[in-house]
Design a protein that fits this description.
single chain, alpha/beta, five-stranded parallel sheet
């Protein structure tokens, strides 16, 4: 791998995609949204009716990304991180949002009650966030970023750029 790869992760609604798209437009890094990749490549095994989303086939996603990740210069955007090989990423950013703000964002996006409550609980207990990332990657390569206010977008872009 010649150029650095970055993983952006966090609970749904923390605006990780907004951040990553803005960062990639400024840098020329290649952007990969794993949810989009999964749908386009049909890299799923069934559909979770309760949450309204496909069930990701992790091994197929890893196989699909392997060559691209070797080339480097990529930002990967996904709400989970524990199934990606550790050697793929030089740095991991976990985006966090205050629960009251997150609740409003998810409600505005039309999340059903079950999916909304589960995402809020994930944020509270850091199930899909910082602790998972720290357990999956070198501790010094994992960083938290706060995404409560629109003004924080620029600060987070600058942090990723460093």
């Amino acid at each position: 791998m010649k150029l650095p790869n970055i993983l952006r992760t966090g609970t749904s609604g923390v605006e990780k995609t907004t951040l990553v798209k803005e960062r990639t437009s400024r840098s020329g890094l290649k952007y990969i949204n794993v949810g989009d990749l999964t749908r386009k490549g049909q890299l799923y095994n069934g559909y979770e009716e309760e949450y309204g989303c496909p069930i990701l086939e992790e091994d197929r996603v890893v196989d699909e990304l392997e060559n691209q990740m070797r080339e480097g210069d990529i930002i990967v955007d996904y709400h989970g991180c524990d199934f990606f090989p550790e050697h793929w990423f030089h740095i991991v950013f976990v985006l966090r949002t205050d629960n009251s703000i997150l609740y409003k964002r998810l409600e505005t996006q039309g999340y059903n009650v079950k999916k909304l409550q589960d995402n809020i609980q994930c944020e509270i207990f850091q199930v899909l966030l910082y602790e998972e990332a720290r357990a999956s990657y070198k501790e010094e390569s994992v960083h938290q970023l706060t995404s409560n206010e629109p003004e924080q977008l620029e600060d987070n872009i600058n942090q990723i750029s460093k």
